[in-house]
Amino acid sequence: MLGSSADATSLRVSPVRLDLNGGTATSTIRLWDSGSTPTNVQVRVYRWTKVNGRDRLDPTTDVVASPPVTKLAPGRENLIRVVRVAKKPISGTETYRLLIDELPDPKKRVAGQVNVVIRHSIPVRFSE
């Protein structure tokens, strides 16, 4: 008989979509950890378009997330600021994806086991 164990992820995110209208350039995403150990998180922003019906994510400097890396203490929450820093006025709609990745804990690495981490992909839309 093979033994196994699993640690359920405890990374939660709210809201799951950002729609910013009328020149609003900033918002926040709330992250929290309901687990019993700290969780390391990386946050990245990509320009999101559709090409031939498929999602395309391209690196961008027009929108930033701060902080880009954080450690969530058990039972605590952090706010991530999402800011459109581009100087060019919005014409129509701009779409982005905020990727929030749980980073694996290297101390929990065990030979013969696969660590599965969570990725939240949050749509972000700026409209005039």
Span between N and C termini? Answer: 60 Å
Biggest beta-sheet profile: 6 strands, mixed
Question: Approximately what portion of the residues adopt beta-strand conformation?
Answer: over 45%
Mean pLDDT: 88
Number of helices: 0
Helix vs. strand class: mainly beta
Q: How many E-type strands? A: 10
The H-and-E topology, N to C, reads as EEEEEEEEEE
Helix percentage range = under 10%
Q: What is the 3D shape?
A: globular
What radius of gyration results from the CA coordinates?
Answer: 17 Å
Spans of at least 5 consecutive residues whose pLDDT stays below 50 are 1-6
Question: Keyphrases for this structure?
Answer:
Fimbrial chaperone protein, 55% strand, disordered N terminus, 128 residues, mainly beta, Periplasmic_pilus_chap, six-stranded mixed beta sheet, PapD-like_sf, Pili_assmbl_chaperone_N
Concise account of the structure shown:
With 128 residues, the chain is mostly beta strands. It has no helices and ten strands.
